[in-house]
Amino acid sequence: TGFVYPVVAHAVWSPQGFLNAKAVTPLWGVGALDFAGSLVVHLTGGSTALIATYLLGPRRGRFYDHRGTPLQTPKEFPGHSVALQML
Which residues of 24-49 are buried (b: 16+ CB within 10 A; e: fewer)? Predict the structure, then answer.
């Protein structure tokens, strides 16, 4: 998000930003109002997570085989570190 956050923050908070509601030509003639920075934070995090999920794709080997064919029953994954779960 080191690259994405500054771009989104400029688009919303800058008077020249295309997402700013007070811009000369806001997006679709409406723009966006940001209350306490929550729009920028959640828009950046949500869009980054959505794109990352699409790029990573499904977990092969648990629900699908290596060719992408669905398995009849999901395979069990081994347990994780209890110490790391507590952190």
Answer: eeeeeeebbebeeeebbeebbeeeee
Most confident of 2-6, 25-29, 43-47: 43-47
Picking from 3, 28, 31, the residue whose alpha carbon sits closest to that of residue 17 is 31
Cα dihedral: 63, 68, 69, 73 (round 10) = -10
pLDDT in tens, 71-84: 888 888 777 777 87
Whole-model pTM? 0.57
